Amino acid sequence: MPLDQIGQTLASFYDTLVAEGVPEHLAVLVRRVRQSESPSEPGTDDAQEARAGARSAHLALVVEDEPEVRALAEALLEETELSVIGCDSAEAALAVLQARGGEVALVFADVRLAGEMDGLQLARAVATLWPRARLVITSGCAVARPDVPEQAVFIPKPWRPLDVLVEAERASSAPPPPLT
User: Fold this and answer.
1) Quick check: bond before 158 cis, omega within 30?
2) Taking every annotated instance into account, which residue ranges of this chain make up the domain Response regulatory (predicted)?
């Protein structure tokens, strides 16, 4: 079976895997499959340039179920170098990550979300499957540090815009961590 078919098959199981918790050895395999996908697929020069442009874009995902808070965070992050996509649930964020995970530089997520998954479950999935994305978790409730992935930053609500902008700057300018 070709490697790209294996990757597509694994991708079709993401939602189930993420909901149940992905074993680290499987997450490493998924990252390797993504890295090995060829950036120079057959096609016209225009199509190749468009794909290259899409890969170089940096996205910020704002995952918040309160529309006013999400709109505020989106407006704030639109003032940075990042393109912004808002999601009201972890499931919607996972759909974006599945489609454009390599472009996502920042995931800014509330702990309490609409849907079956909460922000901590989303953060664990992102930390495992998309380790190059900077994770920022926020909540108006206290969150125990062991519940937050090690590489995530926690900003309590109400957050200060400057704190969010600092994390966006780090996400867009800092080199991503190496894949293991």
Assistant:
1) yes
2) 59-172
Tokens, residue 33 = 């499959």
Q: Residue 134: is it exposed, middle or buried by C-beta count within 10 angstroms (0-12/13-18/19+)?
A: buried
Written out in words, the top-level CATH class of the domain with range 57-173 is alpha beta
Query: Which segments within the chain are labelled E, that is strand?
Result: 59-63, 83-87, 104-110, 134-139, 153-156
Query: Which of 84, 32, 85, 86 is CA-nearest to residue 64?
Result: 86
Domain ranges in the chain are 57-173
Q: What's the rounded Cα separation, in Å, for the pair 64 and 89?
A: 7
DSSP state at residue 114: B
Q: In this predicted model, what pLDDT tens digit does every residue of 107-163 receive, in sequence order?
A: 999 999 999 999 999 999 999 999 999 999 999 998 887 788 999 999 999 999 999
